[in-house]
Amino acid sequence: RPHPCPECGKTFGRLTHLRTHLRTHTGAKPFGCGACGKRFGHLSTLTTHRRLHTGERPYGCSACGKSFTNPSDLGKHRRSHTGERPYPCPACGKRFSQQSNLAMHRRSHTQERPYPCALCGKSFKYLADLTVHGRSHTGERPFPCPACGKSFSNKSSLARHGRIHARAAGRDK
């Protein structure tokens, strides 16, 4: 006999499945990590989390040997070998291997800028762009040139600068 959720009406064939589902409404996290204390709503999530502490990576790629802590990460990785891109952009048709990459790409079709700078209010489409922008306030330049020591706030500026050394080295030959 089906067991309906009193909160949302979804039905479950087993009472244990309903009890697990109810945690999505209550926010209960009965499973705690003995190593760091972080809590989880599902035992399977705790099991995967524990692998961060143990270093265990039981899901190996048969194509290249790289291993992962959970099967979904292995599945995403396999697409790098197969070239499968199952997530199309509804606006332009470009296809992606991961939903998260599609979600980021979709912002290129909108004016959505969900990452505001807490210091000046300027907003960005991508978290990485906000991170780089933040360095304009702090003066941080974490990318030093190995040739001359000059530092840059982002990798692309370092790469552009590196071409100066490459051209100079070409002239010296």
From TrEMBL:
PROSITE patterns, per the entry: ZINC_FINGER_C2H2_1, ZINC_FINGER_C2H2_2
Keywords in alphabetical order: Metal-binding, Nucleus, Repeat, Zinc, Zinc-finger
Q: Which InterPro entries match?
A: Znf_C2H2_sf, Znf_C2H2_type
**One GO term describing the cellular component:** nucleus
Recorded GO molecular functions are: DNA-binding transcription factor activity, RNA polymerase II-specific; RNA polymerase II cis-regulatory region sequence-specific DNA binding; zinc ion binding
Its chief place of residence is nucleus
Q: Where found in the cell?
A: Nucleus
| C2H2-type domain mapped to chain residues | 3-30, 31-58, 59-86, 87-114, 115-142, 143-170
Q: Any stretches that span the bilayer, and where are they?
A: none
This chain's protein is named Oocyte zinc finger protein XlCOF19-like
Q: Which organism is it from?
A: Lepidothrix coronata
